[in-house]
Amino acid sequence: MNCGGRTPATVRCKYCSACLTVTTGERAVQCSQCCGVTRVVRRSVRLPLLPALPRPMAPAGSFPCSRSKKRAVLIGITYADTRRGCGELRGSVNDVKCMRHLLSQRFGFPSEGIIMLTDDQKDPFRLPTKDNIRMAMQWLVQGCSYGDSLVFHFSGLGAQVPDEDCDEADGYDEAICPMDSFQKGPILDDEINEAIVRPLVPGAKLHAVVDACHSATVLDLPFFCRTSRTGNWQWEDHRPPSGACKGTSGGQAVLFSGYSDGKSKFSVTPQAYATVGAMTHSFIKAVECEPCGVTYGRLLTSMKAIMTNGGGSCNLQGPIGAPVSKVANFSGVQEPNLSSSEMFDIYRKPFVL
Predict the structure, then answer these.
(1) What SS3 string covers the chain?
(2) Locate the Peptidase C14 caspase domain: which residues (predicted)?
């Protein structure tokens, strides 16, 4: 539906009927009034066909030139002053700081191999805008080769959008919301898969940790692992009904995300430096508490126990660990899930970054 003229194109919010401006080339738009995400329907006779935008290229010097074998993109968004009546997510920036400490101290990621995008930074190329996130994802996998260990971490808001490609078993695409999501729309799982999963060559590995609502399959990986009725971790085949390829180019991608039934209440504490996200906290604490070489199955079980116990005491390591006093389940996550580009024995395969 075109409700405001042909230039710029506009659509009605699917949930509250507000008139939304559509950025040229984007497939979805987020409403600043109700936070709902509306798919841009290109087949509408009244809405002009919007050409796909070329992917933004990072200006020289905006990202590190170092091609360390260990690289990470860490994104934390508070959405300060952007969500009407919804407050902000205080824990997301802390999540990024804690994750950086874990990667540097425990797994030897060099400082020049880690990019942090948070909305409290002054450098415009370190703000988690849609364009910057796209450029950071491109930087992460560009020129990847055998032996590369890559990490993608996102702490913020997620969203669901009705699927139009017939490649989702549940009929919905998942998405992450940049800080300018209300202006430019969210980043859909199809794009994330194409950006950081498909380029992975043999011997390259990507681990992603996403602390957001609607994040269970946000990398669009074909195999999904969760607890069965017997309490064991079990793989499910989530390859798309359309037959579309969602795997890598020979490497491996693994996603730690969370399940929610949609009924849990979000917990947001207003004090700065008072919270960390529940999903990120359970991952970091489980990694810190378990011995090196812990299997994926043991790590997931430990994460689930931490979540079930409400996070316990935070006491994370690093400079931000001591001031943190509360675990904020702003994503509504109730238990962890794992998805992967390939199935493997999670009770035998060690977790290694």
Answers:
(1) CCCCCCCCCEEECCCCCCEEECCCCCCEEECCCCCCEEECCCCCCCCCCCCCCCCCCCCCCCCCCCCCCEEEEEEECCCCCCCCCCCCCCHHHHHHHHHHHHHHHHHCCCHHHEEEEECCCCCHHHCCCHHHHHHHHHHHHCCCCCCCEEEEEEECCEEEEECCCCCCCCCEEEEECCCCHHHHCCEEHHHHHHHHHCCCCCCCEEEEEEECCCCCCCCCCCEEEEECCCCCEEEEECCCCCCCCCCCCCCEEEEEEEECCCCCCCCCCCCCCCEEEHHHHHHHHHHHHCCCCCEHHHHHHHHHHHHHCCCCCCCCCCCCCCCCCEEECCCCCCEEEEEECCCCCCCCCECCC
(2) 69-341
